[in-house]
From TrEMBL:
Keywords: Membrane, Transmembrane, Transmembrane helix. It comes from the Bacteria. Coiled coil: none annotated. The keyword Transmembrane helix applies. Pfam families: bPH_2. This is YdbS-like PH domain-containing protein. Residues 82-159 form the YdbS-like PH domain. The chain crosses the membrane at residues 25-50, 56-76. It comes from Arthrobacter oryzae.
């Protein structure tokens, strides 16, 4: 149940592409494959006889717990992606994200120093990009991942123009 402090009323939130779920799943798979392999080493060493301690059940508990945590994150990824949104207002850009811990970031156009677009290999394959907003304060640097490339380019130009016009007014 969103509160007005976190989710200002009367805004039309634009969402990121559902294809971004694939990008997140690719990162999830790679990260968890490495993590589960790493925490499985004690179990492998115990089963092959290289180590006598810890007991087999204890050596198996760590990869089991890691696997359960990985499955929990897998379930959350689609909902996390659906929670990412942005809204353009007259004076600022709002970016929201989060399921349990919601966050809404307000970036005034006049505070933007530059707008950057990046895309990793999986994002490029899916036609997506990540828009990064840089301000004078490192705490307000923000990003909108999972944008279709055309929307990212449009938003970059729009935000750059709005930022320049607000800076000229200072």
């Amino acid at each position: 149940m969103p509160t007005e402090a976190i989710d200002p009323p009367g805004l039309t939130w634009l969402r990121v592409s559902p294809k971004y779920i694939t990008v997140r799943l690719a990162g999830w798979a790679l990260g968890n494959l490495l993590a589960v392999a790493l925490v499985s080493l004690p179990l492998i060493f115990v089963l092959t006889g290289w180590w006598r301690w810890p007991p087999v059940w204890l050596a198996a508990a760590l990869p089991g717990a890691m696997l359960l945590l990985a499955l929990w994150r897998l379930i959350l990824i689609p909902r996390q992606v659906r929670s990412i949104g942005y809204a353009e207002r007259d004076e600022d850009l709002l970016i929201r994200r989060g399921i349990f811990f919601q966050r809404t970031l307000v970036v005034p156009y006049g505070r933007m120093q530059y707008v950057d677009i990046g895309a990793g290999p999986v994002e490029r394959t899916l036609g997506l990009c990540t828009l990064k907003l840089h301000t004078a304060s490192p705490g307000t640097n923000a990003e909108i991942p999972g944008l279709p490339a055309a929307e990212g380019a449009r938003l970059r130009e729009q935000l750059s123009a709005r930022g320049e016009s607000r800076l000229a007014g200072l």
